[in-house]
Amino acid sequence: DAGITQSPRHKVTETGTPVTLRCHQTENHRYMYWYRQDPGHGLRLIHYSYGVKDTDKGEVSDGYSVSRSKTEDFLLTLESATSSQTSVYFCANGTPGKAFFGQGTRLTVV
Amino acid sequence: KNQVEQSPQSLIILEGKNCTLQCNYTVSPFSNLRWYKQDTGRGPVSLTIMTFSENTKSNGRYTATLDADTKQSSLHITASQLSDSASYICVVSAESGGYQKVTFGTGTKLQVIP
Fold first, then answer.
1. Closest by Cβ to A96, choosing from B36, B45, B100
2. Where are the alpha helices (DSSP H) in chain B?
């Protein structure tokens, strides 16, 4: 069990608005990740964190920022949402090759 | 470029039948390979994980095989059940500068029908 809670589970937002997705873990995993999942693509890494205030970019980081002020919380922010960011977002924790995933957040940008 | 390709993209089988899903990868240096099951609307859940030295690993009715020479893996499901309907994702990790870089396949969508 990953002990991960994502919020919200569903969100509809308008183009150009900022959006923040939250990920909370009940365990003290050092590594946490944000992925997006789109039809025809495997899960793609947006950003990851390897400790409090330590974050790095993944393969699809443009338009996204993250923050990790506490071990248990990892926030993903879309500074100005675009329709191309309509997706399902997954938070995960654990070591990179042995990650555990949350339930996902379905984000629709209209 | 690291790649993971899965086949078939989708599959429909009758309940009780067996099936095999394939995963080919071009990831190096290889660290481990993991199969995930993802139910609709849920996050992926790990089924098995295999390292270079492991050829076969089972988890109940799920059996994964790994051929590191040909860079192929398969997931065999025995006596399928309706609850096996899901997407199955192959994930391969490469060791890179002390950090594991992970590449996801696009998954095989399995539908088990009565």
1. B100
2. none
